[in-house]
Amino acid sequence: MWERSLVVSAPGKVILHGEHAVVHGKVALAVALDLRTFLRLRPCGERGLCVRLPGVGVVRSWDAPSLQALRRSFAADFDESKSPSAEQLDTLKEFAGIAAGASAPESLATLAFLYMYLAISAKHGDVPSVDILVWSELPTGAGLGSSAAYAVCLAAALLTVCGAISCPLKEGEPTARWTEEELALINHWAFQGERVIHGNPSGVDNAVGTWGGALRYQSGKITPLKRVPMLKILLTNTKVPRSTKVLVAGVKEKILKFPAIMNPVLDSIDAISQECQSVLEAMPANPSPEYYPVLEELFDINQHHLTVMGAGHPSLDRLCRVTASHGLHSKLTGAGGGGCGITLLRPDTSPLAVEAAKQDLCACGFECWETSIGAPGVTLHSCSSLSTQVLHALTES
């Protein structure tokens, strides 16, 4: 029986450069966003499992005998090398009372939890009876990697309590992280959880959630960048809904229609990603202020390219205009067509300018966070290292 409480967190993600171009074989840079998802795990005797996800309205519990029967039938045809099968997911839906075609966040989050619990038990030994509560600073459905942060936290917690990975937090330490080998195992299982939620994910979001920092993605190959700096940003959600599928199709159509015009734009975005990678990797050893104007210019150029490709939206134009009026540089992040934008904050940006920009963005009906990118990946926390807000959220229920 597991006898101690755990608190685990994982970051969200933003695409810094390369959105849309990455679909066409170009380089994209993804960075860890220091808005985090937190998971608290407590032992709960022999009662079974309880999971609470207040952000999506889930409170579910299952007794030990029901879970044992489900575990036996699941383990019989479990193959770790394969994606979660439709038959397995149908069995889990039936067990959890989820309608066959359900795609709401609460249904997918419950399914991912059950699948990961059963698969990790089948591969690494029984997960004990535990009570899990998940709370997030990340908005859902905004392209910020909230489902991956959830899957990474779940993988880390479940693997720790079944003994597949160590519990690296020593007495008196505020935080701890796992070894490289253990992180690879966490990432593997988080990817399985992402497959339950998204079907065919790229693996970028869970890799960012696991390792943090920044990573380069090109044609299916994910490469973590060596040391990168933490950069302060404003993250703004325009709250304008969009369909990634429709936007990606629109960009593809434009490339097919005007190949001689659009292919150089893709090449330019590729060069922006590579130039940005060089700057980020040079910054930790030589934290000179001269890098910031380069990063700002890359933001400006890429934003214009993305608008040319058809990923812009009046709400994003407004975001860029508002921040420019305060001397700040912004670009969309992700699919575009609304959604979120990021604004770079130099270390010497005055707090008054930041506050004024935030007020003007909120006056547009947008939601705004002052946060950082290049954040640490999945982390184990002592309660003393948590903010009052996080502690309150994790002890609410």
Kindly state the number of beta strands: 13
- Radius of gyration over all CA atoms, rounded: 21 Å
Please, how many helices? 12
Shape: globular
Helix proportion: 40-55%
Biggest sheet features: 9 strands, mixed
Secondary-structure class: alpha+beta
Question: pLDDT average, as an integer?
Answer: 92
Intertermini distance: 23 Å
**Are there runs of 5+ residues with pLDDT below 50, and where?**
none
Q: DSSP strand (E) fraction? A: 15-25%
Order of helices and strands: EEEEHHHEHEHHEEEHHHHEEHEEH
Can you walk through the features of this model?
- With 397 residues, the protein is of the alpha+beta class.
- It has helices spanning 64-76, 86-96, 105-124, 146-161, 180-198, 204-211, 244-257, 259-282, 291-309, 314-324, 351-363, 388-395, and strands spanning 6-17, 28-43, 48-53, 58-63, 130-136, 175-176, 214-218, 221-224, 231-237, 329-333, 340-345, 367-373, 379-381.
- A hairpin with a 4-residue loop joins strand 3 and strand 4.
- The longest helix has 24 residues, at 259-282.
